[in-house]
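Please decode residue identities from the backbone states below.
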């Protein structure tokens, strides 16, 4: 039964990856991002390792963070949105294009677990609004180094977050590395690198529909 579930997950993952490859060269229409107090945008690269197998993906991201909702958009280097993950009040959704170009949406209770079920690897959606601001998520166990002053390394929720560079003017994180070790064949290791365009700001109407 476990082998069958693994085969089904791999088949679904292959179909989604094929659809993302198609979407990278075609325009996929997503609803505009809702305005939020904090919006981060920039470039990302990800490396996913399953034993000897390696996958790599890169592009642009937009993270819109509000008190009750988090929205993460991933886009191709050309700017076409590849996937959107939303988390709010104990529920989450992941929307991505299918091979025929139509959009499909999956629902779950955890955005991180939903990404793992659909894409085959975890995305740090739940903690990202805090980590990208250079702090641990309040109320959850964490190790922060150094013990005082601006954080350089955060260990929380199975992720290791390293702040590689900060903006000179504000001291806010500009480049971050995030890593998660493999938890078995169904939970591969993940390495993410984020480079922010600028400090967080409020997304205006002209930018709400694009990462």
């Amino acid at each position: 039964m476990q082998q069958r579930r693994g085969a089904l997950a791999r088949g679904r993952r292959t179909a989604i990856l094929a659809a993302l490859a198609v979407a990278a060269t075609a325009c996929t229409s997503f609803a505009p991002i809702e305005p939020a107090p904090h919006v981060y945008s920039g470039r990302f690269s990800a490396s996913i390792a399953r034993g000897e197998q390696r996958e790599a993906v890169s592009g642009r991201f937009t993270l819109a963070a509000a008190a009750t909702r988090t929205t993460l958009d991933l886009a191709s280097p050309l700017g076409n949105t590849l996937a959107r993950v939303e988390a709010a009040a104990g529920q989450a959704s992941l929307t991505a294009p299918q091979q025929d170009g139509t959009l499909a949406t999956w629902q779950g209770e955890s955005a991180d677990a939903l990404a793992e079920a659909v894409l085959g690897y975890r995305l740090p959606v739940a903690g990202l609004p805090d980590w990208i601001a250079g702090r641990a998520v309040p109320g959850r166990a964490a190790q922060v180094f150094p013990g005082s002053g601006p954080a350089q390394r955060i260990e929380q929720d199975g992720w290791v977050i390293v702040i590689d560079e900060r903006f000179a003017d504000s001291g806010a994180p500009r480049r971050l590395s995030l890593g998660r070790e493999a938890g078995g064949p169904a939970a591969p290791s993940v390495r993410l690198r984020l480079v922010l365009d600028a400090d967080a700001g409020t997304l205006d109407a002209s930018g709400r529909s694009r990462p």
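Observation: The first strand starts at residue 38 and ends at 50.
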